[in-house]
Design brief:
The chain has 25 helices and 16 strands. The chain is an alpha+beta fold. Helix 3 crosses helix 4 and helix 16 runs parallel beside helix 18.
């Protein structure tokens, strides 16, 4: 079993926004973050993540918990498996009650990477390629560029160094087929790929001996998912927060050369496709996004798809297309740094780029083709907000050379989850505030219980009992904890004043009930009346009893 001390130490490293945000796209909403719930089908965002409470909760289906619970639910893992996955992701070594399981995190990938880097220094063909592309030695060191030799050499190195072959297979360094092991990277310049927090998770490789595939990446592993990763993000994240901008390119060399020229906010997709799974990572820091893609057909298509995705998701930014067979790496090598800076600054906005590309694919001299272009443009505009639809309607009409009256849009404003917003605007808010106070300030519990019994609550007696029992993982309590509209009482004086108000109203209601009762004796009614009036009088004097 994993020791409790180890579990608590791991949890202390985790940030729920970072963990959840690595799986789904989160949008800032006040002090919290929101998203459509990944655990049930919904159109409005009722899934809330609280960085202050370090929990998530869905107001639609009731799902909720901490970082570990989210990974369990999303990945369909049990508790120990989720802990181990998170530990690997955060480069954390868990401790076990059984000492034989207390082994450190596998170092096979780091050892192989060090070996690749050493081999690069003696391979003249690889060094010549690096030099020809204009890559400095400092960049080779910064990005950990290496060289992978023949398959047999890699397999023999793993054996001779007594590295675990099973771990090498699991890490994607080695494959297994037909009863034999083989290296996945053969005679290639290697580019180590890291997670957002800097953990080595895979490799990219560029052939220098004419293999059919110019570039290859590590296979999918529990730690390597190319649809969620961006090459060099761990190097770029500090600069992107500072500049509030991120430059996305198509390849490793583009990124390396851009960093070499001072564009330290450059990253690359692992392949040309930007996917919805990349958006949570891109959302961090809310940067302006610049797509820097090649001008060939594949590059333009990739830029078009990415622009549609980013604009529909509300990202700000634009597209730079490199013409005449150039790419960012070539321009840096040629000394065109200032020109690059201007191009990035003047990137064509996503929406304009998409509409221009759509129109360019149609022959506007043909009325039917023009109609198709208009319909395709309208379909795209409908993925945007109502305001943007209206603003760009004129732009589309101008590009088509038609009257804006022909552009007919049905404005579909984002529906607000009124149930979520209005849930706690009614008269039970005080009770919810009391429950939240118990959850956030357990030192007040004795003071509350001296004068208040759970049965006195009209609406949230169950939640109050759960809070007193410390059942903080109960969905009802998570919903209360994460709801910003519910405020807890911060000090004893405020708590006393609220308790006096609540109890005064409670005893006044009870006094009215007694006065209206006809099924009890006069003596019994008089006893209760005196008792309730005495309590109300004491409360008016500020006495809690």
């Amino acid at each position: 079993m994993i020791t409790q001390e180890s579990i608590e130490a791991l949890k202390a490293r985790l940030d729920v926004v970072d963990v959840v945000g690595s799986y789904i796209e989160l949008k800032k909403a006040g002090a919290n973050f929101k998203a459509p719930c990944p655990f049930h089908d919904e159109k409005t965002a009722s899934f809330v993540v609280s960085p202050a409470k370090q929990i998530y909760h869905c107001f639609g289906c009731g799902a909720g918990g901490d970082s570990v619970k989210f990974v369990m639910e999303y990945e369909k893992l049990n508790y120990p498996e989720a802990l181990e996955k998170l530990a690997d992701s955060y480069n954390f070594s868990l401790s076990y009650t059984d000492n034989k399981h207390n082994k450190p995190r596998s170092q096979v990938m780091d050892k192989i990477n060090e070996w690749y880097q050493k081999l690069l220094t003696t391979n003249q063909t690889a060094l010549s390629y690096i030099k020809d592309r204009g890559i400095y030695e400092s960049s080779v060191e910064k990005f950990g560029i290496g060289y992978a030799p023949s398959s047999n050499e890699t397999i023999n190195y793993i054996k001779n160094q007594f590295l675990n072959m099973g771990e090498a297979v699991e890490a994607g360094i080695v494959g297994y087929d037909g009863g034999r092991n083989f290296a996945r990277f053969i005679e290639r310049i290697t580019f180590p790929i890291h997670s957002a927090n800097g953990t080595l998770v895979g490799f990219g490789g560029r052939t220098i001996t004419g293999h059919q595939a110019k570039y290859v990446n590590s296979p999918e592993t529990p730690f390597f998912n190319k649809s969620r990763l961006l090459y060099a993000y761990h190097h770029a994240k500090q600069a992107l927060y500072k500049t509030n901008e991120i430059i996305i390119t198509e390849g490793y060399l583009d990124v390396i050369m851009l960093h070499q020229a001072g564009f330290n906010n450059a990253v690359a997709t692992l392949g040309t496709a930007l996917t919805p799974e990349h958006l949570p990572l891109l959302r961090k820091g809310e940067p302006r996004v610049v797509m820097a893609y090649d001008g060939d057909k594949a590059g333009r298509n990739a830029a078009l798809k990415a622009s549609k995705l980013l604009s529909a998701a509300g990202f700000i930014g634009g597209v730079v297309i490199f013409a005449e067979g150039l790419d960012p790496a070539d321009m840096v090598k040629n000394g065109a740094t200032e020109e690059l800076s201007n191009m990035f600054r003047e990137a064509k906005p996503f929406i304009e780029f998409v509409l221009d590309e759509i129109i360019s694919l149609h022959n506007l001299r043909d009325p039917k083709a023009k109609e198709s272009a208009m319909q395709e443009g309208v379909a795209y505009l409908k993925t945007l907000s109502a305001l943007l639809q209206e603003e760009y309607k004129t732009y589309l009409a101008s590009c088509l050379g038609i009257s804006p009256s022909f552009i007919r849009l049905t404005n579909q404003t984002n529906q607000i989850n009124t149930q979520f917003l209005q849930k706690n605007t009614h008269k039970d808010m005080w009770e919810l505030s009391l429950v939240k106070t118990v959850l956030e300030h357990p030192n007040f519990i004795d003071q509350i219980l001296d004068v208040l019994d759970p049965s006195l609550l009209q609406f949230h007696s169950r939640e109050f009992k759960l809070a007193l029992a410390g059942e903080t993982q109960a969905p009802e309590l998570m919903a209360i904890l994460i709801d910003e509209s519910i405020t807890s009482l911060k000090d004893e004086d405020a708590l006393k004043a609220e308790l006096i108000t609540f109890l005064s109203r409670y005893y006044e209601r009870e006094l009215k009930k007694v006065n209206m009762q006809t099924n009890i004796s006069f003596e019994e009614k008089a006893f209760y009346i005196r008792q309730f009036r005495g309590k109300i009088s004491a409360l008016k004097k500020g006495i809690l009893k």
